[in-house]
Specification:
Methylamine Dehydrogenase, Chain H; four-stranded antiparallel sheet; alpha+beta; 28 strands; 2 domains
């Protein structure tokens, strides 16, 4: 091994100690960029299967994924399309600005007269005969399988998100901390404890509901009260969408391609590959190993559940207590800054190369492992 390579190797290894990049779980999730074929903002995503996924966005954009690639579909409108939801591959709804509602019957898209001119922001339903669309000025429309009718929301604030566990248990959220609950008969206000715009909701049941806000808050409803935790240190950063496969596997996306993951006990940063990229506006998947996030300028990221390579884990072993120290420093110190989070990206980008170099020099591998064992404390309550 020549001196220049050795110097680079030492620099990367010590960067790894400072960067703290460790884990064999979702913290090292590998989100890969996918070619969308558009530069339009993508604002919603939904699908009926791994090979049947739609993304919608600005200026009437509709994209379809067949399991291999994304292609553009003629929507018949130039209005901004904000969200998409369906019950099957032949029953799909899209909502957008100026009262736009589109329906797909499995062969073609058609426009539906909503009877309103408001901007729609989200759509959800419990079945093909129980669908809700929410939008500006407190608008809520309900579809009973035959026609759309307007409901009394009791608010004039814009409503940005909707989700429910059943036809008699639904939640809507929006501006100024607004959260409404529907009991099958009427909508009533709930106390969220914040004034931030609550952008989206998702839950695994009516007593296990999560919401995200523009102030970087993640809210939680336990069936009785709403509470919240701040995951962004700066309120200028936001979270715009949330989705999960279960109460122990939830993704939240937002500013600068930030992705958080929840494992039923802790929210942690889930994506270190694109910390300075475009904002993400929607997230959805078919399973914990097939998740899409879409956003600004045609951004599509795909998660396949495969972990990224981590030299620290390679050197110390997955059960070493020092990894807890490294994770703590990574999540609570480095990841909080846009500057140091860029170093995290650098570490991951060169992880495989570093491991390959270590494999080629067993002696140097032993030396570096000893350095890590000396420099990094085992005590989880301390940092480096």
């Amino acid at each position: 091994m020549n001196k220049s390579v050795l110097k680079k190797l030492i620099a990367i290894v010590f960067a790894s100690v400072l960067l703290v990049l460790t884990s064999h779980d979702h913290s090292l999730a590998k989100w890969a960029p996918v070619n969308s074929g558009t530069t339009r903002d993508l604002l919603g995503i939904w699908g009926s299967a791994d090979s049947d996924v739609f993304a919608v966005g600005d200026c009437g954009t509709i994209l379809h994924y067949d399991g291999t690639e994304w292609s553009s579909i003629d929507s018949g409108t130039t209005e901004h399309l904000r969200d998409i939801w369906g019950t099957s591959d032949s029953d799909v709804f899209i909502v957008g600005y100026k009262g736009t509602i589109l329906h797909y019957d499995g062969s073609s898209w058609s426009s539906i007269n909503s009877g309103v001119t408001c901007d729609f922001y989200d759509i959800w339903g419990s079945s093909e005969t129980d669908v809700f669309a929410v939008g500006s000025s407190g608008t809520i429309l309900h579809y009973d399988g035959t026609e759309w009718s307007q409901m009394d929301s009791g608010t004039e604030y814009d409503l940005c998100g909707i989700w429910g566990s059943s036809e008699s248990d639904a939640f809507a959220s929006g501006c100024c901390g607004t959260i409404l609950h529907y009991d099958g008969l009427s909508w009533s206000p709930m106390s969220s404890g914040t004034d931030y715009v609550i952008c989206d909701l998702w839950g695994s049941s009516g007593s296990n509901v999560f919401a995200v806000s523009k102030g970087g808050l993640i809210l939680y409803y336990d069936g009785t009260n709403w509470s919240y935790t701040r995951v962004f240190p700066l309120p200028i950063l936001g979270l715009y969408a949330i989705w999960g496969t279960s109460g122990a596997d939830i993704f939240a996306v937002g500013s600068y391609s930030t992705i958080f993951h929840y494992d039923e006990s802790t929210w942690s940063l889930n994506n270190f590959t694109h910390p300075f990229d475009n904002d993400l506006y929607a997230v959805w998947g078919t399973s914990s190993s097939n998740v899409f996030a879409v956003g600004e300028c045609g951004t599509i990221l795909k998660y396949d559940g495969e972990p990224q390579s981590c030299p620290a884990v390679y050197l110390l072993g997955e059960e070493d207590q020092r990894l807890d120290t490294l994770r703590k420093f990574r999540d609570e110190v480095l990841a909080k800054s846009s500057v140091t989070s860029g170093l995290i990206t650098l570490y991951y980008n060169y992880g495989n190369q570093l491991i390959a170099l270590l494999d080629s020099s067993p002696t140097f591998k032993i030396i570096l492992r000893k350095i890590l064992e000396i420099v990094v404390p085992k005590d989880k309550g301390t940092y480096l």
